[in-house]
Amino acid sequence: MAQQQETVLTFRGLTRRFGGVIALNKFDMELTNGQILGLIGPNGSGKTTSFNVLTGIYEANGGSIEFLGQDITSWPAQKVYEAGVARTFQRSRLCLELSIFDNIMIGNHKRLNQGLLFNIFQRKALKEQIQENHEEARKLLKIFDPALAEKMFDPVGSLRMIDRRRIEICRALISHPRLLLLDEPSAGMTHEETRELMDDILEVREMIDGLSIILVEHEMGMIERVTDKCIVLNFGQKICEGAYRDVASDKLVQEAYLGGE
Amino acid sequence: MTQSLKDKLVIILLAAVIAAFSITFIAIEEQVEIFALLVFAAALVLGGAKLGITASIAQSLARNERLMNFAFIAATIAVVFWFREDHFPLLMIATVLLYVIACCGLNIQFGFTGVVNFAGAAFFGVGCYTAAVLGDTSVPLLLVILLGGIIAAIVGSVLIIPVLRTRGHYAAVVTIAFGLLFRTFLEVNDTLGGPQGLGVSGMNLFGWDFNNNIEISENLEISFYMNYVVLALIMVVLTFVLMRRIERSWIGLNFDAVRLDETAAACFGINIKRWKIVAFTLGNFLAGTAGALYAMMLGFIAPSNFAFSDSLILVSIVLLGGMGSLWGTILAAGLVVLLPEKLQVIQEYRFLIYAVVMILILLFRPQGILPRGLRAYIPGWRG
Predict the structure, then answer these.
(1) Which residue range or ranges hold the ABC transporter domain (chain A) (predicted)?
(2) Is B375 on the interface with A (CB under 8 A)?
(3) Which candidate in B112, B250, B285 is best for mutational testing of the A interface (most A CBs within 10 A)?
């Protein structure tokens, strides 16, 4: 139980400006081991920005980010990934002309031997590495959809939206991250597909011990079902924090979403 | 007949047809006949595509990659052997082979990694001038070829910072500027021969002079260009092995990830700068090695060989064949180098026709004549 309480991620006064617009304003947040946190708020409230600052795509203008006891505030994207943060994107950013296997292996970068000489001359060892990782990727993909696992060498561009989402999540999970960032996984999908995806996410959480997840989502049914805790952002500021039920009944939150007065 | 036997027959037949076609194409002189042959070939390919024959041939090829490679090498040897006594056809074939190597370099750069390089001819030229300068020294000439590549890669490192900092059009402009600079530098530099250029000593391997015809018997004297063709062919095979190994490894995957989505690649730990530098350096190296042998073969080089238009020819080969497609590069190099030589009519209109063909290709078949397929890490293995 003690491990359950371990803090994985802390934001302290995290701020990000774009010109005159404050996209993220003194955002404080804490995430513990194994927790699923829902990040909600109207469009432009800073949800995706907080992902981008966390993963090193944007620099923070103020405040700090601590991940597993290390200050990662100014780390580049590559280093943040090495430390164990993996993400999906709001608009699917898969390489559509590459195969499913290729896409998942992009997410596996830190666990593959990237040496020039290894790749060019040690073909036998490389072949083994390819086959091992193929097996592992297949197993992971099977959790989401067994049919998909049989199509590892098909181009991603030929797949449905939900399958692409699944592959994106697999690409993020294959490297065994400690923290998974899901940016609107339900975007562009039907209700039925969203429900399927939710089941997958819950299953993944059961399987991987100590995986924390931050979920940005507009689909409130999904937030209600999967999250342990919610944070509501509005104009880059945290306006509410707590369990979904409490947050949903909060007056400020209703105003932010529906427009108050 | 079993499937595998059928596949093998198809491949051997295809290689034979390609060899026969190449020999006919290179041998005939009559302009009308050349046109007729081209129209016939185009009709054959288009008809085959309509009937699904090309698709089934492609499957046969994919299933027997090793045999395919050997069949095509054998076809090349057959063509070369056919013209064993003729200087000009052999010179053309060697030129095609060396262009293939240089274009493989460009393919690593923008076919795989998306790093544009409009100064391909300049890096080819660095190789040429390396051969010219070092050819008379005591450095072994095989090593000179290697040095041509290495020096091209080193000269290219001047461009690394601008290439990393710019993208798209801006990167194109930077490399174009470099190409122009290179040529101007050669023209005003007297030690490198100025605008008149330099003579280059021919290849000499352990006392075997490449510039002498090989006398087999009284009535068989093989053209000295055969030496260059053989060496160029060996270099093409080595380049091909290297390209294939790169493509079918995590390096090739990293290159693709960098080309397709830098942000996503960075979020999964891929060091964008590192892989761009690797691709750029490796590409220039290949162009340099090809240049070094090319200079030895021609025996004379001048700055006018390395104009912007020559860089454009290299780029057009890559686009025409299909970005990142190895077989496409060979086909396109053959077409781009041989067509103007064969069809004298178009020689004056060369660039006009290139331009039209490039626009047509980009409009109607942007993936090139022989598009690159999905990565098959281990041929024939699908998990």
Answers:
(1) 9-260
(2) yes
(3) B250
Q: For residue B6, give its domain range.
A: 1-82
Q: In the prediction, which pLDDT does B305 show?
A: 87
CATH code of the domain containing B280: 1.10.3470
By C-alpha distance, the chain B residue nearest A130 is B377
Give domain status of residue B379, yes or no: no
Which amino acid is located at A231 in the chain?
I
Q: Residues B233, B95: one domain?
A: yes
Name chain A contacts of B375, Cβ cutoff 8 Å. 98-99, 102
Residue B318 has pLDDT above 80, yes or no: yes
Instruction: Tell me the CATH class for A1-84+177-261.
Output: alpha beta
Assess A58–B contact: CB distance below 8 Å, yes or no. no
ipTM: 0.91
Q: Determine, yes or no, domain membership for B186.
A: yes
Q: Is residue B375 part of a domain?
A: no
H-helix segments, A45-149: 47-54, 77-83, 100-107, 116-121, 123-144, 146-149
C-alpha pair distances (Å), A93 with each of A96, A145, B74, B283, B373: 8, 20, 44, 28, 21
Half-sphere CA count of A165, side-chain side, radius 13 A:
24
CB B163 within 8 A of CB B113: no
